């Protein structure tokens, strides 16, 4: 009888024991079924960016009787949106594309041909996940004071480049350094531009800078996010910092092209 009990105990112990390899397999299977973290958590946000209104409320100021495109750093609107814009085209971080896709950020990219160089594929990826492509000249000169022919060549030349690359001719144009004159507006109009876009605030390495007025964002403000710098934080980190600030103010990101 004792021998029988010993045999039964051994069998029971074998039945209850789990092979270490099998145990690892079960843990891996459990991890497969765990829900993935929400994308906004990955980017350091406490909540996803609120969606922009489906039907934008805006009143675009014009230039009656001139036929010239308006110059904007702010869009009058009752919607609690601001607009994120990015200049030049120096950004090459593929994770920024992931950020735009996962957070569904309707950002506007103002591209300069001589800066983008061979990097147009990066911006085609950004366009495919919802970013818009806009004009920032061929070579980034200070346009103010240049003759009409030179300004028109810079603006129309980049219109042609962007059409060949993306199949579109942008409606929006940002003059380099924000500098423009009446000739800039006339040349831009002749190139099919409907608005010149400046900025109400600029996001630097750590914080927003305001060239004038109250040091806070208001609905309709246009924000320029500076390109990456060797000693600064990555573009996605500065964008996340900006998004956290917007959430604290009850603001979200709108698509500039929907309001202009």
Sequence-ordered SSE layout with sheet pairings:
Elements: H1 2-16, H2 20-32, H3 39-42, E1 71-72, E2 81-88, H4 94-103, E3 108-111, H5 113-116, H6 120-128, E4 132-135, H7 148-166, E5 172-173, H8 182-190, E6 195-197, E7 201-203, E8 208-209, E9 222-225, H9 235-248, E10 252-253, H10 256-259
Parallel strand pairs: 1-6, 2-3, 2-9, 2-10, 3-4, 5-6, 7-9
Antiparallel strand pairs: 7-8
Helix pairs in contact: 7-8
Would you give an account of this structure?
The structure is a single chain. 31% of the residues are buried. With 260 residues, the chain is of the alpha/beta class. It is globular and about 70 Å long. Strand 5 (172-173), helix 8 and strand 6 form a beta-alpha-beta unit. Helix 7 runs parallel beside helix 8 (182-190). It is built from ten helices and ten strands. Mean pLDDT is 85; it is low at 4-11. The termini are far apart. Helices cover 39% and strands 13% of the residues. Strands 2, 3, 4, 7, 8, 9 and 10 form a seven-stranded mixed sheet that branches. It has a three-stranded parallel sheet with strand order 1-6-5, with helices on one face. The protein folds into two domains: 2-32, no CATH class; 40-259, TIM Barrel (Alpha-Beta Barrel).
Unreliably modeled segments: 4-11
* SSE series: HHHEEHEHHEHEHEEEEHEH
Determine the CATH superfamily of the largest domain.
Glycoside hydrolase/deacetylase
Helical element count?
10
How many individual β-strands? 10
Q: What is the global morphology?
A: globular
Kindly name the structural category: alpha/beta
Q: And the CATH topology of the largest domain?
A: TIM Barrel
Main β-sheet, in a few words?
7 strands, mixed
How far apart lie the N and C ends?
92 Å
CATH architecture of the largest domain: Alpha-Beta Barrel
In percent, how helical is the residue content?
25-40%
Computed over alpha carbons, the radius of gyration is 26 Å
Percent range for β-strand residues: 5-15%
CATH class of the largest domain: Alpha Beta
